[in-house]
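Fold this: mevalonate kinase
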Amino acid sequence: MLSEVLLVSAPGKVILHGEHAVVHGKVALAVALNLRTFLRLQPHSTGKVGLNLPNIGIKQAWDVASLQLLDTSFLEQGDITALTPEQVEKLKEVAGCPEDCANDHKWLAVLAFLFLYLSICRKQRWTEEDLELINKWAFQGERVIHGNPSGVDNTVSTWGGALRYQQGKISSLKRPPALKILLTNTKVPRSTKALVAGVRNRLLKFPEIVAPVLTSIEAISLECERVLAEMASAPTPGHYLVLEELIDMNQHHLNALGVGHASLDQLCQVTTAHGLHSKLTGGGGGGCGITLLRPDLQRLEVEAAKQALTGCGFDCWETSIGAPGVSVHAATSLDAPILQALDGI
């Protein structure tokens, strides 16, 4: 079933522009973030394959020999939503799910892992159909978290690069040059579901005010898309100045929608003091913000900004956007710090 170490990684995701507007049919631009989550599958002498998810209280193990005896032909269709009730029950039985797990979302992770392990993880190379299946499972996770997600998050993490999203239609953008950013976590918890509902309520209450704000956010997304397309062939300092203006305008619009937060205001103020431009990314109400790093910045300037942000109690990472999507790796292809971190698990 699994004869050697299998290393899989997936990128993070940030929304460049279009937060909340996308829920109302507007254009959003999303990019894969080069901060990756790694999964290591490796054989053990116990003859079992295990799944340990301590954050949600899941620890399961299966006998590999028993899994090898299973008739997994029904998995070849590659879509769990097409399984019959009897096949779903069989998968639950193999997974060891309790009888009362129907409404317990954490068991979705167990079924997803086992389904993907049996149907995909044995392969050395993933096909487009495999990636579609991964994307479908990731979307199910998004439904648990967000209620009625747009599908942007799971799609960009699966396929990578940069995507344009509108009303369920997703298209890839020509990749711009590597844009360096700071990703800052304010550590303020928030509910994306509640924030989305808040914007919807504000739209119903003040339609003539909020609808134009959403339209303006879409215009910012479209202008950013145009600039990124130009930068793909010949980036100039002027392009970065336009991107900074768009970031500032979008942040003000998002505050008008009611999804800002004092911590995000502080983030923007700190980076502005260092000549940088920032905005929230995602649901808002806390969470994370992104800061564009122009290529002409000196190393000391970047480090000073990072130090100021961490001095506020925030976590800050320097990274880039437009990363590859979910990938299988050979151990020899990974950097030493990643291998050391995996070995320490």
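Residues 147 and 193 are 6 Å apart (CA to CA). The two ends are 23 Å apart (CA to CA).
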